[in-house]
Amino acid sequence: MKPGREVVITGLGVVSPIGIGQEAFWRSLVEGRSGVRRLSLFQPVDGLPPFGGEIVDFDGKVYVRPRKSLKVMCRDIQLAVAAAELAWTDAQLPSPPADPDRVGVVLGADMIQCEPEELAPAFRSCMEEGQFDFRHWGPRAMPEIFPLWMLKYLPNMPACHIGIIRDARGPTNTIVLGEVSGLAAIGEAYRIIQRGRADLMLAGGASSRIHPVLYARSPLWEVSRRADAPEAACRPFDRDRDGLVHGEGAAIFVLESADHARARGASVRARILDYAEAFEPRADRQPTTGQAIEKALRLLLQRAKVSPSNISYINAHGMSTRHDDQIEAQAIQRVLPNVPVSAPKSFFGYLGAGSAAVETAASVLGFHHRLIPVTLNYQTPDPECPVSVVADRLRPLGPAAVVKLSHASTGQAAALLLAGP
Predict the structure, then answer these.
(1) Which residues pair with 127 in a beta bridge?
(2) What is the CATH classification number for the domain harbouring 105?
């Protein structure tokens, strides 16, 4: 296959706080139903936000086969496998694939946190008179740890499990790049197909930030404290935003070369026109300025040979923090002034490596329904965020392309250009 061949999306699986599966997910977007609620998986210690974008009706046993594999799958992995299974079914792919060597997997993942109770016995065994004694770790603690414990928490395990389940023997990779991970995975899968190294790729991201360890570290982030109204806590670009909301979720896409999709009679959900990424160097502990976001946007338009007038709307990163929203909005305004902006995080919060993928799902489904989803909780415009936020009602989606943006506090930014089928 020649480099530069067209790449299309033929399948989509999504597991999110606002619904499992495309229909439930889209229905929540249309009805303006938030997935941010009081937590049920655990209760954070006093003083920490007792709410988040939790998936309350998820059961890994429904998607994981054989079930014994659940012993080595943490929640992040289970969410990824579930989304991949839904995507595979949606694309109507055969099992096993016709040519396994031409099928690959690229996923965005986080540094996965261990469940505290799994290591608690090991630590207790090393206590002497109320103090932890490192000398006992080898002889006492190791026998208390499940031998395959590490396999539950390695970031590359979601991609590995999906590859094994679907017999995908082609290019396989994992990207751990913070908030940008999911979009970077889609971008890499797109390039792999373009270069002719595979005909079909499973790509996306998954993460669960509904975790006691991450909540204990909440002071490290600017988090919302709206415990009296959790559903109103995530409010991207709004003047009264007070921080991010942790959540969990996964979205996996089936990417194919257009030739491959046509040959098997597949339905096309969207076309990938191009992908770009950039990095902004910064001094230690200094906040980013948005230069990488602006550069990624300009590079995307340049590569795709698309003018700003050909963009229908921007699916924004929209973190709901003071600084992130400000630099993103101002970068958008410099490159794509007055283009409508929507921020899906307002529905479910910050999903880590799963964020950009789940947000991309909103745009891919938007092509089918010809609608731009709204941004929840946007009530008061912020002069520091000079963008045209879609908030009052669903808007018709025109024939032009859609930009999906993502950026990280460490300086990376990514932009994906999508078009309808």
Answers:
(1) 132
(2) 3.40.47.10
